[in-house]
Amino acid sequence: MLERLIPPIDRIDQVMVRLPFVKPFSISTATWTCKEALLLRVESEGVTAWGECVADPDPYYASETTLTAAHIIRDFLLPLVEPGITMAAREQRFRRVRGHGMAKATIENALFDLIAKREGLPLYALLGYPSRPIPSGISIGIQDSTEELLEAVGEAVASGYHRVKMKIKRGCDVDRIAAVRERFPDLALMADANGDYSLEDANHLRQLDAFGLTMIEQPLSYSDIYEHSLLQKQLATPLCLDESIHSLADARAAIDLGSCRVINVKQGRVGGLAEALRISEYAASKGVPVWSGGMDETGIGRAVNIHMQTAPFFTIPGDTSETSRYFARDIVTPPVVLDGDGFVAVPALGPGIGVEIAADALKDFTLDTKRLR
Ligand code: OSB
Ligand code: MG
Fold it and tell me: 148-206, pLDDT tens digit by residue?
């Protein structure tokens, strides 16, 4: 896919949107009541393509925000996007810009959608994989009470999700997990701390070994790799890294140090699909399974995550749950829905990301639009 040429580009717009969530979503460091996202719309000889930036308006999950991404995209990355050069050359040019993987992924996604649409190919085919039903997991935010948590997990189990992830934080962990495990003894269950603990909490975290969790995601700092290797030695439960992994080099460091036994690959965090697939292939070659995380994306980013999971490295159900869990109204159709067996279909309404923009919803949720090229 990287050998493809960047097509002629007639116009690029940045579209800022804000969609209300069905209910607030809480992680250890933040609560979001809506999804605010930067979208990129690229037009090329009558074909329109889209990319969604996974950054939030705040730097509480990652250092990038919608506005840092807008700045980096407009002032540093888009000037490097030249029709006629290969996607590989474009990726190489992007390397001069340090970090800002979310900004880079936004452009890369829009360009792959554009290339796929112009060739009449679904995105998964451009990536080089056959379509397959994708087993889905669900990420349940921190709830106000154990009762509400049990109810949310109960609903997820009844829906057929293949595994349940619950968010945890200091003071809201062992008892909650114990309650879920007691009610659902056979559930594939994991916990995500979004970096809320430190190495001094190792003894505390060791209590979690009693609950047969499939993994604990990002227990230590968002930027740490080394201390996770020390913690992993003290825990039987596999650790999974999310925030700390920005590149193939990070993944190699984490795997070689023994910092994790699983990786949450978010294409939107690591600079796009190309780097995400490199990380996934490398991890798989080292016996480290990967899965696709999510960032509560609108249907645009959600579609990309689903297409990516057609790659054979994704052997663990990802965080690509149903649209209706997040939004009463999304900016694309059709919504992501779970089949009776807990799988989601790869969107295939047309070529590219395979979803259609719902023009009315997009208009209603747009905060502002700026022409960039
Ligand atoms: O840590 O994976 C995370 C959402 C926002 C920020 C960080 C994370 C998450 C999720 C939700 O876990 C995943 C999803 O349902 O899209
Ligand atoms: Mg996470």
Answer: 999 999 999 999 999 999 999 999 999 999 999 999 999 999 999 999 999 999 999 99
Tokens of 32: 């979001």
Please enumerate in sequence order all residues whose Cβ is within 8 A of that of 284, keeping only pairs 6 or more positions apart, or say none.
290, 312, 313, 315
Q: Catalytic residue at 167?
A: yes
DSSP secondary structure string for all residues of 194-251: TT---GGGHHHHHGGGGGT-S-EE--S-TT-SHHHHHHHHH-SSPEEESTT--SHHHH
For residue range 94-153, what is the model confidence (pLDDT) as tens digits? 999 999 999 999 999 999 999 999 999 999 999 999 999 999 999 999 999 999 999 999
User: Of 56, 110, 146, nearest to 372 (Cα)?
Assistant: 110
Coil, helix or strand at residue 23: strand
3-state secondary structure of 8: coil
- Cα separations in angstroms, 289 against 167, 236, 282, 311, 313: 21, 17, 10, 12, 7
Question: Which bound ligand lies closest to the C-alpha atom of 31?
Answer: 1
Q: Is 35 a catalytic residue?
A: no
The pLDDT tens digits of the residues spanning 33-43 come to 999 999 999 99
Place of tokens 């230590």: 220
H helix or E strand, kind and range, residue 189: strand 189-192
Pairing of strands 262-265, 290-292: parallel
**Environment class of 165 (CB within 10 Å of its CB; exposed 0-12, middle 13-18, buried 19+):** buried
pTM of the model: 0.97
In this structure, the residues whose C-beta lies within 6 A of any atom of ligand 1 are 27, 61, 139, 192, 194, 242, 293-296, 319, 321
